């Protein structure tokens, strides 16, 4: 290759590389500017299932609400349910959950109750009977396809023991 042609070509390639890099950085900055709000999650129900040996099992129903103009593809969920500050349920699921734009979806997850947390709650209930409602706290981590970070959500409420199904 001619040395003078190489000297002319090198700055041209450098300029083209800088233009491509600037375009890539501008594209990334635009992606961050999207109006994206974290999804919301609600505990809908804790339904008892047939036990397996000494292990109590429950169906946890969670409502996932998407307040965004893009659909969500949730690839994994990890969650903990505390009742009266005792960790009662803990579970994970890799079943995909699809939530359309500005809509909601209900996820049904089967989980086993932790023995230690259940005994702590039982002891607390015997010492301090409830007035018909139990306070709960739900901590959830949602992994979204296409996002490198997980979304962590925490919600509190009460379970009305007098409500009829």
Structure notes:
There is one protein chain. This protein is an alpha+beta fold and 165 residues long. The protein is 26% helix and 49% strand. Strands 3, 4, 5, 7 and 8 form a five-stranded antiparallel sheet that branches. Strands 1-2-6 form a three-stranded antiparallel sheet, with no helix packed on it. The chain is elongated, with a radius of gyration of 25 Å. About 4% of the residues have low confidence.
Q: Bin the strand percentage.
A: over 45%
Query: How many angstroms does the end-to-end distance come to?
Result: 82 Å
**Care to count the β-strands?**
8
Q: From the alpha carbons, calculate the radius of gyration and give it in angstroms.
A: 25 Å
Shape: elongated
Distinct helical segment count: 2
Give me the secondary-structure category.
Answer: alpha+beta
Low-confidence stretches: 27-33
Would you spell out the secondary-structure blueprint of this structure?
Blueprint: H1 3-32, E1 40-52, E2 55-66, E3 72-83, E4 86-93, E5 97-99, E6 103-112, H2 115-127, E7 133-144, E8 150-160
Antiparallel strand pairs: 1-2, 2-6, 3-4, 3-5, 3-7, 7-8
């Amino acid at each position: 290759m001619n040395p003078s042609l190489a000297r002319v070509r090198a700055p041209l390639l450098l300029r083209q590389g800088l233009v491509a890099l600037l375009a890539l950085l501008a594209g990334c900055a635009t992606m961050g500017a999207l109006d994206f709000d974290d999804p919301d999650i609600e505990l809908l129900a804790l339904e008892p299932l047939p036990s397996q040996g000494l292990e109590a099992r429950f169906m946890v129903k969670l409502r996932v609400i998407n307040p965004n103009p893009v659909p969500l593809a949730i690839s994994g969920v990890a969650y903990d349910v505390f009742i009266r500050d005792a960790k009662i349920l803990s579970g994970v699921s890799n079943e995909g959950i699809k939530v359309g734009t500005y809509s909601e979806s209900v996820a049904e997850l089967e989980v086993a109750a932790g023995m230690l947390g259940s005994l702590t709650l039982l002891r607390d209930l015997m010492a301090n009977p409830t007035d018909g409602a139990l306070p709960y706290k739900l901590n959830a981590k949602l992994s979204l396809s296409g996002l490198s970070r997980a979304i962590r959500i925490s919600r509190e409420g009460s379970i009305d023991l007098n409500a009829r199904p």
